[in-house]
Amino acid sequence: MRHVLPVLTVVAVIVAIWYAAAIWLNAQWALDTAARQDRTLGAAELVLDTWSQEKPKLPAPHQVVTELWQTTVEKNVTSKRSLVYHAWVTLSATLLGFGMGTALGFALAVGIVYIRVMDMSVMPWVIASQTIPILAIAPMIIVVLNAMGLSGLLPKAMISMYLSFFPVVVGMVKGLRSPSRMMRDQMRTWNATRGQEFLRLRLPMSMPYLFASLKIAMAASLVGAIVGELPTGAVAGLGARLLAGSYYGQTIQIWSALFMAAAVAAAAVGLIGIVQRATLKRMGMG
Amino acid sequence: MTEGAIIDARDVSLTFQTNDGPVHALRDVTLSVEKGDFVSFIGPSGCGKTTFLRVMADLEQPTSGAVLVNGVSPEEARKARAYGYVFQAAGLYPWRTIGGNIRLPLEIMGYDRPVQAKRVKEVLELVDLAGFEKKYPWQLSGGMQQRASIARALAFDADILLMDEPFGALDEIVRDHLNEQLLALWARTQKTICFVTHSIPEAVYLSTKIVVMSPRPGRITDVIESPLPKERPLDIRDTPEFLEIAHRVREGLRAGHAYD
User: Fold this and answer.
1) Residue ranges of the ABC transmembrane type-1 domain (chain A) (predicted)?
2) Contact B170, B178 (CB under 8 A)
């Protein structure tokens, strides 16, 4: 409970700055509109106007909250206007891509740890893959997969995978190599096979690294799914909401989609954190 | 070749190639260990005592010379699981209970579950840890953890026990207690033990044979057959015989240093 007051203070400061910024950014529009209608605005009127415009440059916090409330709680989740529906579309691609990325990252890490040729050759490519801007390559992936007859969930998941396998490779290579020389010698004195050494020593030892990687991978995966929705003109998903919002100047919609994305990411990463704590505690490594 | 020797080393040399040039970890080490011996290797750091133990365990390959363990090469002996090895640190897996840790080598070696359970129980009693099977390593003191690691090395009932400064990180009082227990365990199990240490009292108290080594290059400077009886209460360390052997060990260590 000691942390409640500082946290609330910080939140209050952010909200205050936000309201102030909304006045500053939206004032010009309010003044222009008033001038066109031959009206003059008092200070109070001006402030209220900047906080209640339909297409503000920066929507005020309560506008975003209202929009979030209307598009989640007050809408049927199957409705195309429900933000929950769009969040689920994005989340399903995120989770699929996260699963594929984790599997790919894990497989590459095992290969790098056990196969010398892979150790020497794969890592530079893995790193190079992440230096390419995802926004540049995402449309190509979508187009190529479309040409192959794949559309919908899978292309988006592929982009998620592309972003999420990287932290898993890096973390798991480190994790699988974390057993000390002594622990590996110990296995050798028992004449353990590679498989036994992997399952009983390397894999359990790598768990703290795995969970740290999974958290980053999950966040990256969500970014990937949203980016994957942008170039296709997708009709559903948080990315589609962002895109549609920007076409029509619906800033409130954009901001509420952003907040939804942040909430989804926080929930998914938090879930991994819970599993991590339970697992590591059980393993005596927490 | 010595008849019936458990360990027979002939002119073993081992040179590590490092960036600062070659390091002669062992040079012309010749030694034989009889069945049931308790052999201590003592010397300053860098004298090759641990390296020699690792050569016996097939964890290092000698550059020249030959070692036989149980009459076969160290590699064959390792594959036949002829020895248990206790490292400097207990090296217990935090995610396994004490019982689970001791079961680990048995699982790897493919023992049946009932046999595993029986062995775990037996060796826990042997190291005086009965009742701790379901505890986790962090719930045990350092001395108890090291005892558990000895139990793990004993679990598959190898005839040879190789111990690399197993009590080095423990305080004097715990160490005394564990030394006493180790002697009792050795008497009960009739194992052949090779024990690396840098404590003179520990070496003299435990051993039937003390191998004094010196560094640069690592070599044997003296081998002392202990005249002490097998039955050794802790206060044997105040007897003239004990002090005389300790003196000879000290002399041997000093002679080894005369070179530099």
Assistant:
1) 83-276
2) yes
Helical H runs in chain A? 4-36, 43-50, 61-72, 83-114, 116-131, 134-147, 153-176, 181-189, 194-197, 203-205, 207-229, 238-247, 251-282
User: In angstroms, what CA-CA distances link B63 with A52, A139, A284, B13, B67?
Assistant: 84, 60, 42, 6, 11
Q: Which residue of chain A is at minimal alpha-carbon distance from B106?
A: A190
Beta-carbon separation of A188 and B78 below 8 A: yes
Task: Give chain B positions within 8 Å (CB) of A183.
Answer: 91
The helix or strand, by DSSP H or E, that contains position B13, with its residue range, turns out to be: strand B5-18
- pLDDT tens for B85-112 read 999 989 999 999 999 999 999 999 999 9
pTM given for the model: 0.84
> Chain B residue with minimal CA distance to A185?
B59
The DSSP call for residue A180 is -
**What distance in Å separates the CA atoms of residue A190 and residue B107, rounded to the nearest whole number?**
10
What DSSP string runs through B240-252? HHHHHHHHHHHHH
The size of the A-B interface in CB pairs under 8 A is 52
Q: In sequence order, what DSSP letters do the residues of A76-90 get, joined into one string?
A: -TTSTT-HHHHHHHH
Q: Which residues of A touch B (CB under 8 A)?
A: 180, 182-183, 185-192, 196, 200-201, 204, 282-285
Q: Is there a contact between B85 and A186 if contact means CB atoms under 8 Å apart?
A: yes
CB contact under 8 A, B87 and A182: yes
Each residue's pLDDT tens digit, A169-209: 999 999 999 999 999 999 999 999 999 999 999 999 999 99
User: In chain A, whose CA is at the least distance from the CA of B60?
Assistant: A185
Q: Which domains does chain B have, with CATH numbers?
A: 5-82+159-257 (3.40.50.300), 90-157 (no CATH)
Residues of chain B found within 8 Å of residue A182, distances taken between Cβ atoms: 87-89, 91
Nearest to A190 among B105, B136, B137 (CB): B105
- B87 contacts in A (CB within 8 Å)? 182, 185-186
Q: Which residues of B123-159 are buried (b: 16+ CB within 10 A; e: fewer)?
A: bbebbbbeebbeebbeebeebbbbbbbbbbbbbbebe
